[in-house]
Prior knowledge:
Layout: H1 3-12, H2 19-25, E1 28-42, E2 45-53, E3 69-76
Parallel strand pairs: 1-3
Antiparallel strand pairs: 1-2
Amino acid sequence: MKRRELLQALACAPLAPSAAQAAAQHESRTRALRAAPASLPAAGLPALDAWAFDGRVPGPVLRARRGEWFDLTLHNVLPDPTTIHWHGVRV
């Protein structure tokens, strides 16, 4: 390698992300969510049949910061198709 090529490579090195930085940029939190029929207790009333996410109505709150990657797998065991309504997220 010539001196000029070495100096060019060294000058550009801080601009190239390291392997750790590249991996961190694409790290994501992984979560599974289950949509299924559930029988939920009601105060002083018989249990109510409902469609729930992870056995709860409403389902859990999922939070992520801007720029953060988030992987979600929805396991739908409901008798009909379903979807997730994303409040405040541009999808």
